[in-house]
User: What shape does this take?
Amino acid sequence: MADNKTQATGASVQEFLAAVEHPVRRADGFRLLALMSEITGEPAQMWGPTIVGFGRYHYKYASGREGDAAAVGFSPRKSSLSLYGLTYGPEAAELLGGLGRHKLGAGCLYVNKLDDVDEAVLAELVRLGYRHVTTVLHHG
Assistant: This one.
């Protein structure tokens, strides 16, 4: 069974974000760092080379595959901000209607820039997503 490719690392979150080439993504990355740190109460940690994560949870699938992952997090990618862990909770679908411009992918929420979304709604998605992932998801 293959290990999860995205593991927690000891890399510096500050250095990673400071090196983001796109100035808006870099600024949004620091804004998300502050927002997610405050809401989760967790220190930011790099997961793999490009994901900033907060908290962790252990997953185990029926197939036997298991591992650890960040409870919530983000990555300032070239094309958009990828936000993780915010769409799993039952309240997420209703909140997404008031978020603003975004796209959904497999377990991800994509935002072009934070100025395109309602930050209060985003904060609530982080709060609810973090709670859901750490208390319900994969806890049977």
Remarks:
- The helical segments are 13-18, 23-40, 92-96, 119-135.
- The mean pLDDT is 91.
- The chain has four helices and six strands.
